[in-house]
Design a protein that fits this description.
The protein is of the alpha+beta class and 350 residues long. The chain has 9 helices and 11 strands. It folds into 2 domains: 59 residues, no CATH class; 279 residues, no CATH class. A hairpin with a 5-residue loop joins strand 7 and strand 8.
Length: 350
């Protein structure tokens, strides 16, 4: 930028808009002198210094603007997904969408989820696996959730004709295929590593239900108060965690004056779910993306469903009378309030 251009920019500055009174007075004085004649070399250097100071102030003011804008968009997406799932249920006669991402990876694509674990590209930490009981699976089926997408960690799966599914992060990072983190639970034919597990098979029992194998589901273990607010405090006090932070035992309330801990199943809201089938009644038109994770980490939002109530001792629970949606969290396991903190600057943006 030459001196003529710098002076032109200087002339356009509104001295009255500068908050620092001393600087504003100096700018006004220099602008008045410029109209009368020219600047000395010293005055030109002062002009350049003032412009640099103003530019620095603007840079500080705009710091993290993009990240905060993303946080604001994430909050809106969480509200949209919460409302979308509940609206879908109303429009489809008390039936939830199905085929959510299980957040589980397995070494075998059979119905037992052999080697089941939280998928290793998840930015989530507050989850652990529990066995899905027959009764709990039946309640899920009753409300419409009769299938989950599982990521198959297997070298034999070959999405997009390049790479394999034994290394999810490496597969996603490769530029030689069309695999992306948010679609990892899609089938290999759709450039993913997933397969669909159904909790009802063709050999239904006399009561119309049969669980395939002994699969696991991921549950929330990040504390109830974060999810439920003040009422969650007593429920948190009934839990005992091990050194890794996983729940190991629960204490039921014998006097029935305090709510027992509930089982919050966590599922990813990925493109396999018919929640995002625009041809279905109540279906949404696009799958929201959570952007505060790396490009090789799972970048969808997470729904928490109440599927039961824990009982005293170990990871055992009784199924809920009816599965219900509790809330939506983001892809890093943060609640809406925590994401709002990123938006207004009171909490570090991930």
């Amino acid at each position: 930028m030459n001196m003529k251009s710098i002076l032109k920019h200087f002339d356009r500055i509104e001295a009255s808009s500068i908050t620092d009174a001393k600087t504003a007075k100096r700018v006004a004085k220099l602008q008045a002198k410029r109209k009368q004649g020219g600047f000395t070399l010293l005055e030109l250097l002062v002009v350049v210094a003032i412009l640099a100071a103003i530019a620095g102030t603007a840079t500080i003011a705009l710091q993290d603007t993009d990240a905060r804008a993303s946080a604001a968009a994430h909050v809106a997406m969480m509200d949209e997904l919460n409302e979308g799932i509940r609206t879908y249920r109303v429009l489809n006669k008390n039936t939830y969408p199905t085929n959510f991402d299980s957040l589980i990876e397995t070494t075998s694509n059979d119905t037992s989820f052999t080697g089941a674990a939280l998928i290793d590209i998840a930015a989530l930490e507050d989850l652990q696996a529990v066995t899905l009981t027959v009764d709990a699976a039946e309640r899920m089926s009753d409300i419409g959730i009769n299938g989950l997408m599982v990521a198959h960690n297997d070298a034999g799966s070959n999405p997009d004709g390049d790479g394999d599914c034994s290394d999810f992060a490496g597969l996603i990072a490769s530029r030689g295929n069309a695999v992306v983190a948010g679609n990892i639970f899609l089938t290999p034919a759709a450039n993913g590593c997933g397969y669909q597990w159904q909790n009802i098979d063709s050999d239904d029992t006399t009561d119309g239900f049969q669980l395939n194998g002994t699969p696991s589901v991921m549950i929330w273990n990040g504390g109830y108060e974060r999810i439920l607010g003040f009422d969650g405090i007593a429920m948190d006090a009934q839990m005992t965690a091990d050194a890794d932070g996983n729940y190991t035992t629960f204490t039921a309330d014998a006097d029935d004056d305090t709510a027992d801990p509930i089982v919050l199943m966590a599922v990813g809201l990925g493109p396999s779910s018919n929640l995002f089938n625009a041809n279905e009644l109540g279906g949404l038109t696009s799958v929201p993306v959570y952007r505060h994770v790396s490009e090789t980490e799972y970048n969808r939002f997470i729904a928490l469903f109440n599927i039961g109530t824990f009982v005293t001792g170990g990871i055992t629970y009784t199924p809920a009378d009816q599965v219900t949606l509790v809330t939506i969290i983001d892809g890093a396991g943060d609640t809406k309030e925590e994401e709002l903190g990123e938006w207004d600057g009171t909490r570090n943006t991930i």
